[in-house]
Amino acid sequence: MAKVTVITSGKGGVGKTTTSAAIGAGLALRGHKTVVIDFDVGLRNLDVVMGCERRVVYDLVNVVRGEATVRQALIKDKRIEDLYILPASQTRDKDALTIEGIGRTLDELKHMGFEHIVCDSPAGIEKGAQAAMYFADEAVVVTNPEVSSVRDSDRIIGMIDAKTQRALQNQEPVKCHLLITRYSPKRAQIGEMLKVEDVLELLGIPLLGVVPESPAVLTASNTGTPLVLLENTDAATAYLDVVKRFLGEQQPHRFIEAKKSGFFARLFGSDLATVG
Amino acid sequence: MGFFDLFRKRGSETAAQQAKDRLQIIVARERASNGEHVKSYLPKLQQELLEVMAKYEKLDLDQVSVNLDRKGDAEVLEINIVLPPEAKPRRSVRTGVTPTFQT
């Protein structure tokens, strides 16, 4: 059974596209045939993050409107077997998507044997975000430990509970997961940043993972490399863990506690830049 | 905790604690306004206040705001009615009514 998962957040810039690319790539690395769909019509970015921007011919809007077939629009990743991208249109606007058209497109992808369909939602709570979440079986809510992001995530969780197909047809509710990104255990420890447990308490959905603030994220997008391929980086490790948990495997959480620092670091404060 | 941390202000809450406290209020209020467990009479109260006020002053819909805040254990119902300047040109424009009640 194919599973449709929306990556959403409400707020922009918290890591939806990074997360969509990383989870999609991680699932494919584990041997699951996976497609990542960019729903951010007009502001597509998944293609550049995944390094396939020069291979875009047809897009999601073409497919939804019957101007191209799904096969024509799909881009196969060159590095990871079983990973495909369905890019957004850069020239149309979000009104070009219809719920019926999206439903047809998802059905076709399921018939093609995709096991995971990852929907990269646009920011906001308007039509585009609702279109991305409508057919979701599961949702990954991406949140930064910061007030505006937590607030927007709460709104989005409310919408997932009310405006998805599962909610409207009284089916089993969409399974929500919380993913905290750009986390700094050190800053949380000294009270500069909301702690993981604070965000969990406020939002009340189970934790899928914590991705630490990491230079690897920028390196990955600079070079168009799937983040999970940047071996031995903290962010890649965190996302590979996330994929394991998403697949139902046991994997203890990491990156929540600050590393124990040495004597001098403790004496002078472990991060001099933040003192003051 | 580093050596320099000793010079930080003591007794005041951390920024993270303030963020959490603020979010608890924001989130509770927005869940309420989105139809979950509620002070559900607030929109109606706002409407009726507006109707009463409209008998005496020319008002438009944006001129009455009704808010529910939480301060410690108490909830504060704050009603702000802005009187139009042309009705009483020199008068200060804010009438704040802030009854406080325990819940």
Describe the structure.
- The complex is a heterodimer of chains A (276) and B (103).
- Chain A has 276 residues and is of the alpha/beta class.
- Chain A is built from 13 helices and 8 strands.
- An 8-stranded mixed sheet of chain A has the order 3-4-2-5-1-6-7-8, with helices on both faces.
- Chain A starts with a strand and ends in an 8-residue tail after the last helix.
- Chain B is of the alpha+beta class and 103 residues long.
- Chain B is built from 2 helices and 4 strands; from the N terminus they run H-H-E-E-E-E.
- Chain B has helices at residues 15-33, 42-56, and strands spanning 64-71, 74-82, 94-97, 100-102.
- In chain B, strands 1, 2, 3 and 4 form a 4-stranded antiparallel sheet that branches.
- In chain B, a hairpin with a 2-residue loop joins strand 1 and strand 2 (74-82).
- Chain B is elongated.
- The termini of chain B are far apart.
- Classes of the chains: A alpha/beta (276), B alpha+beta (103).
- The interface between A and B is medium-sized, with 25 and 20 residues.
Brief summary of the model shown:
The complex is a heterodimer of chains A (about 280) and B (about 100). Chain A is α/β, with parallel strands linked by helices. In chain A, about 40% of the residues lie in helices and about 15% in strands.
Report the order of strands and helices of chain B: HHEEEE
* Distance between the ends of chain B: 39 Å
**Widest sheet, order of strands of chain A:** 3-4-2-5-1-6-7-8
Main sheet specs of chain B: 4 strands, antiparallel
Percent of residues in helices of chain A comes to: 25-40%
Mean pLDDT of chain A: 93
Q: What oligomeric state is this?
A: heterodimer
Tertiary shape of chain B: elongated
